[in-house]
UniProtKB/TrEMBL annotation:
Ranges of residues in domain Transcriptional coactivator p15 (PC4) C-terminal: 22-67
Gene Ontology biological process terms in this record: regulation of DNA-templated transcription
This protein's name: Transcriptional coactivator p15 (PC4) C-terminal domain-containing protein
Family matches, as InterPro entries: PC4_C (IPR003173)
GO molecular function: DNA binding
Residue ranges of coiled coil: none
Source organism per UniProt: Massiliimalia timonensis
Superkingdom: Bacteria
Length: 74
């Protein structure tokens, strides 16, 4: 199985920290040398492991932001 490589281009925010030390973050990440995408997932304290997450293009992130702004006004 091919090893997955990633480069964190920019750390944007820590959304939460669990008792185990894992942090749920939003970052701008380039996966396997591809264009960077916005990425939300959990990482172990030393970043040697990461959980399942979601990646978003800039257009998708903008739509998500608009939807959350609308939702959170309620």
């Amino acid at each position: 199985m091919k090893e997955i490589q990633y480069e964190i281009i920019r750390e944007i925010a820590v959304l939460s920290t669990g008792d185990s030390g894992y942090t749920k973050k939003i970052n701008l990440i380039a996966w396997n040398g591809n264009e960077p995408k916005y990425d939300i997932r959990s990482f172990s304290p030393a970043r040697e492991k990461c959980g399942k997450g979601i990646t978003l293009t800039k257009a998708e992130a903008e739509k998500l932001l608009a939807a959350l702004k609308k939702e959170l006004k309620q």
